[in-house]
């Protein structure tokens, strides 16, 4: 797929030797041959099987739990409930996935006084076999007092709505409302005089939108194994995006020192933000401790994944935007109500920033509300919060463009943010490639090829994501044959072993094949933040770059001593080192340098200069007027990667984000009945797209180097999921004349909208 | 003096200003200076000796991980923003 340099100056950028190439990933052979070990593959001597009892009710008070019959069942070695958890502090901490109240984290693991969603964990069992564990679950008696479920924002905001959390009061940036509420917090970003801005508009569009709860849909269910030793030391094997995040969460909820916990990462079959929060790990530790220090393994079923792990928020959104006759935006207003699930913590804060970030407008107001409802606690999902709000904003921008007879790309170019412009929270943007992305799409073969045929339409939308830096550590060990052992603790979800090893090889001036990356455990590598926030290739890549520089400097130092020359006369030359007449290749330099003492370097980084990412997307669709089915005919994504370290994996991220976004836009949704029971807790009924549903997704990588990284890298993992819903909504509108304001735009919804437009009533 | 952008929900405590000037060599000192002029503002930003959970500070366009300890220059721009997390 094409890669578009941003400008002629970028074409003169350094020609990297390794960065920008497409080598085979180090873990590729193990993964395609089935030898890679995932969480459920782990087997230890004496290992017990764990199972979790989950609530059949969406909202109820727990009056009594009787586990005596389960404990008496032969083969059962341990049963735990919330009574076995230490009393968690009512304190907010950032344990790797944003700030969370420890009491809520603990209560989500095993329900205390109330169950707050269908699937809420109540008790866990460890037994000598899976069948015994399941029999034991059936013997646990729970006495409930059912309460009315609160399933949506609309219900949660009613004055007489049942309260999920009796002690929850709306926080307005440090000020707590007096009365308890289902609204956990309210935030506002504002600049300019809003109504004055709207008075300058020639046209104002004011629309309301609804999006449903959707799941990350990682292919590997959660899996965790723990073994507690008699001396209290704990080892956890986990399928996680962050081993240090697991360690800190387990330490906090179980009241253990972090020094007592070792977390070992297994291979991970996808995460997308959903494998940061812990669900099973603390239960496995408790069960192992109660079961005489035997190891305990817990693996979720797909239904458990859907009912009980964090999906992302459903939302109610109002967008009001005004533009003058030339298409310049005069005022923008958003009201965002995000469903947090059972405990506070929806991504409404990120959504508020994403909302109008692509648009340079001096007058805007964004209000965000975090609302608790009787659904599983929301978890991060790829650019958390962004897809919902971009669906709404991009639909309104498209409506404005159409009403003003402007090309949708031109409308965005007229209003595009550039370096120095500000996000809704007033943070200025550094060097960005948004305009370059818009121009690249306009020049693409897709956009320049007219779309013909009945019931067909083309849509465009854009998206912004801020990315993240975070903390990373890494170690490099020089071997005497010139190869380099490279130890990191950033779990590899999307090919980061390769992208990190490539940056170390580039920095050190050696071949990629000479770098041997290894993902370490919490005892073998220093702290790393989670693989999330599009940070790993950026931040751990920074660490890889620094390791290369340090190792190179140390090699020069040792060669200078050996050759008895000043260190500043030892230089890199070709693939080795030289000083005057003396020359050695890298492998020979390594052999000489390691003769007296081994050579190892470590580094820790916390880089700030993570550059923002933009993506612009275009889709052609065909809508079946008889069934409402939307077929995606062609799709192109343009994204600024800063510098694509491994273009194939950047393209994979772009295509993956679009594929998930298409599923979110067209089919995926949690379907609950009036009792709050999830009705589609399987992949048969929770309709994710397969390869049969998707066209080839064309990618255009734009490279506007990020000045905050030695190779110009920006995070590429998340922004791609933000525009698809808006892109498809706009395409469906152009195909049918109908503007859909609710996700998913599934066949029944599309058909109903078509019937509504035509006045047809099938039941009349 | 540093230029401080006041978040919308705190502007009523800052005399309705969206932007004020404050002295200080660190974010912590800037907040203390703001508190002298606008009593009640500091407690909305600081809790237990650090920025409240969910609040970040950006100095000169870069979100700081040093919080109250971040260096501020007389020409700096200080912005308090909601802390964000990714997936």
Enumerate how many helices of chain B there are, as a single number: 2
- Count the E strands of chain B: 7
* Name of the CATH homologous superfamily of the domain at 1-7 and 427-466 and 611-764 in chain A: Aldehyde oxidase/xanthine dehydrogenase, molybdopterin binding domain
Mean pLDDT of chain B: 93
DSSP strand (E) fraction of chain A? 25-35%
- Mean pLDDT across all residues of chain A, rounded? 95
Summarize the biggest pleated sheet of chain A.
Answer: 7 strands, mixed
As laid out across the biggest beta sheet of chain A, the strand order is 4-8-2-17-14-15-16
Stretches with pLDDT under 50, minimum 5 residues of chain B: none
Overall shape of chain A: globular
Measured by DSSP, the beta-strand proportion of chain B falls in: 25-35%
- Helix and strand element order of chain B: EEHHEEEEE
Would you report the number of β strands of chain A? 31
Spatially, the strands of the biggest sheet of chain B line up as 2-1-7-5-6
